[in-house]
């Protein structure tokens, strides 16, 4: 059963997604090369929050 994510999970996911999008356009030393992985981590965090009742 799906549940809406809690606020902390949503905020962490949004921060990761925004960091990935910014890193795609602005050169950030560690993050720019791994922007796709950061975006996938944001999506995975959101999925974990939706599928888990305790997060």
Q: N-to-C terminal Cα separation, in Å?
A: 14 Å
Can you give the mean pLDDT? 94
Uncertain spans: none
Q: Classify the helix fraction into a percent range.
A: 55-70%
Strand tally is 0
Strand portion, in percent? under 5%
Domains, number: 1
- Briefly note the structural class of the backbone: mainly alpha
> What's the gyration radius in Å?
12 Å
**Helical region count?**
2
Shape: elongated
Order of helices and strands: HH
Q: How is the biggest beta sheet arranged? A: none
Q: How would you describe what is shown here?
A:
The structure is a single chain. This protein is an all-alpha fold and 55 residues long. The chain has one domain (7-51). Helices cover 65% and strands 0% of the residues. It has helices at residues 7-25, 35-51. Helix 1 (7-25) runs antiparallel to helix 2. The longest helix has 19 residues, at 7-25. The chain starts with 6 loop residues before the first helix and ends with a helix. The model has no long low-confidence stretch (mean pLDDT 94).
Quick recap:
With 55 residues, the protein is mainly alpha-helical.
Describe the structure using short key phrases.
mainly alpha, 55 residues, elongated, 65% helix, 2 helices, single chain
Give the arrangement of secondary structure elements.
Elements: H1 7-25, H2 35-51
Helix pairs in contact: 1-2
């Amino acid at each position: 059963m799906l549940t809406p994510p809690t606020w902390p999970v949503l905020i962490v996911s949004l921060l990761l997604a925004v960091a990935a999008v910014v890193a795609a356009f602005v050169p950030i030393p560690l993050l720019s090369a791994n922007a796709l992985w950061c975006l996938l981590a944001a999506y995975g965090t959101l999925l974990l929050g939706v599928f888990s009742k305790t997060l």
